[in-house]
Amino acid sequence: MDTGRTVPTGVAGAAGPAGTAGPARTAGPAKPPAPAHRPRRPRRPVELRYLLGRVLPFVVLVAAPLADVLTSPEERFDRLLIAAPAFAAVTWGARGTLAVGALAMGTTTVLALGRGERLFPALLAGQTVLAVVTLAAALSSQARRRREAELRQVSEVAEAAQWALLRPLPRRLGGVDLRLLYEASAAGAHVGGDFYKALKVRGGVRIMLGDVQGKGLAAVEAASLLLGSFREAAYTAPGLPEIAERLEASMARYAERAPESTAADRFATVLLAEIPDDEPVVRLLSCGHPAPVVQRGPVVRTVELSSPSVPIHLPVPVDAPFTVDEVPFAPGDRMLMFTDGVSETRDRHGAFYPLEQRLRGWAAEPADRVPGLLKEDLARFGARGLDDDTTAVLVVWGAPGEEAPLRHEDRLVAL
């Protein structure tokens, strides 16, 4: 595919036409904050093993006395009843565990009386041991419930942070349709190191997709800083190099203000894209980020970027200008921007995910279906499923003059 030419800066997007290739830059360290807005998550279905854990104490309460009755008096299966409150502590609360322990003690007493045993001293000793185990199990259950409540609270905070930083992309900006795939790597996680933003600016649409080194709160903090910097720069900067310079400067300033922060040591790969309203091109600037894939009809090719820059805030001196590549992008064309969670997925034989081949097979699919197809296919292809943060933005250039007004909810998420 023709990947176009390298241009000095050219922006048909914000405050004026062209600029320069951008001055030299030097990298340094950095950090950021976070907000909130979120929809409700669907409840997860109850897992089978959790149900088994709930039932297991009662299986012991039934099976142990039954085995004790059906076998010879020398076989003392009633001693297994001590396991019932221990099992109950895994899934039941403190009251439920105490109730199971009381049932076990009552069952032990009935079996002992049925065998004609004396209540003292043997039965009393056994009941004392069972009572101690039940009490310990109840305390353990109470501690487990407290930890679960704390984890739920942390999960809610993480979810709020995600929806503050990574609101859903508007389905349409100007003449561009956008479709998003976003999956955090860890099961139950809501925030990873990936981030994205798309804005309608004067003369076009500007998009940022990035990936902060590492995960956790430090990565979220760094992503917050970069998103805020892009939000400000996208409306005013004359070109993509100036936006990249401001991203670099924001990280460097933060590192100077808070050198002790773990976020100040993070770097990020970033891909910036600009789609002018009046030209059939897309302008791209990569800071260490994977190049996008452009589809024109059945033809799918990865863009060959002429001179990608190093990641933002990489702690090495850099003395090269940011380079913008201009690639043909006409009405009906599609471009997939993605993070390394897509490009570096491997199967169990070590082969990389064949993204171009898959997109050729989905060329006739509606844009709405492509992110879902990509997610399902990555999960099947990967040796460990989706084991890394996975983000992809499908950009579709509409027909000329097809600019539709933003819906109210799209206006909100585009801010």
What would you say this structure looks like, in words?
The chain is of the alpha+beta class. It is built from ten helices and twelve strands. Strands 1-10-7-6-5-4 form a six-stranded antiparallel β-sheet, with helices on one face. A hairpin with a 2-residue loop joins strand 2 and strand 3 (176-183). It starts with a strand and ends with a helix. Mean pLDDT is 81; it is low at 1-45 and 400-415.
Overview features:
6-stranded antiparallel beta sheet; 41% helix; 17% strand; elongated
Determine the fraction of residues in helical runs and give it as a percent range: 40-55%
Element-level helix/strand string: EHHHHEEEEHHEEEEEEHHHEH
Sequence stretches where pLDDT stays below 50 over 5 or more residues = 1-45, 400-415
Which descriptor suits the 3D outline? elongated
Specify Rg, calculated over alpha carbons. Answer: 30 Å
Counted beta strands: 12
Share of β-strand residues: 15-25%
Largest sheet: 6 strands, antiparallel
Number of helices: 10
Strand order of the largest sheet: 1-10-7-6-5-4
- Mean pLDDT across every amino acid position: 81
Structural class: alpha+beta
- State the distance separating the first and last CA atoms: 34 Å
Quick overview of this protein structure:
With 415 residues, the protein is α+β, with helices and mostly antiparallel strands.
SSE map:
Layout: E1 5-7, H1 48-70, H2 83-91, H3 94-114, H4 119-165, E2 172-173, E3 176-183, E4 194-201, E5 204-212, H5 216-236, H6 240-257, E6 268-276, E7 281-287, E8 293-296, E9 299-302, E10 324-328, E11 334-338, H7 340-343, H8 355-361, H9 370-381, E12 390-397, H10 408-414
Antiparallel strand pairs: 1-10, 2-3, 3-12, 4-5, 5-6, 6-7, 7-10, 8-9, 8-11, 11-12
